[in-house]
Design a protein that fits this description.
This protein is an alpha+beta fold. The chain has 2 domains: 61 residues, Arc Repressor Mutant, subunit A; 90 residues, 2-Layer Sandwich (Alpha-Beta Plaits), CATH 3.30.70.920. Helices cover 36% and strands 21% of the residues. It is built from 6 helices and 6 strands; from the N terminus they run H-H-H-E-H-H-E-E-H-E-E-E. The strands form 2 sheets. A 4-stranded antiparallel beta sheet has the order 2-3-1-4. Strands 5-6 form a two-stranded antiparallel ribbon. A hairpin with a 2-residue loop joins strand 2 and strand 3. Helix 1 packs across helix 2. The chain is globular and about 60 Å long. The relative contact order is 0.15.
Length: 192
Amino acid sequence: MYQLDEQEKLIVRELIRDPRISDNQIAIRTNVPLKTTNRKRKLLEENNLINYFCYLNNTPKGTGTFTGRSMFIIMLKEGITRKAVLERFEQSEKAARFFPKHLVSTQIGEYMGNIALIMVIESHKREDLIEIYNAELINELHAHFGHGCVKETITIPISDTLRIARNYLPKRNMRAGKIKTDWPDSHIYVYD
């Protein structure tokens, strides 16, 4: 387990505010020396402690490309392990090609002793979501884990996004792709 020091916490807070910020600007804002900022940022990146993402809002309130969004909680049958799911998804060429178009996010969890896949799926039309699930996603799961591998599925339509990655509240604290400058540091979670 990696423990962030005080300088790293300051650096990460600035990166949360604006992932595109330069090391020079971080050093100015935090009073952490530039060479130290550069070294610590690289260390955090190399150890996969910080990652950068670009989120394109394809909902009706963004590009309008996708009008339907639902969360699918897919409980797999007994005997399918977390390791097997991770390996299959990491190795599947179809998953690499197909899933980015429709999947906003995928997590793996556990429910009552079974592996659960939690997926947020988008489509051009809300009514197509169930078709994507049954015609494409279920077939992919069957190909990897056998027919009948899904024990139960719960579907929850999603109407809006309130928070992303702990600190980003798109309707409240975001402007021009980053956190607003007047958003208080006390409202940015880094690490306790």
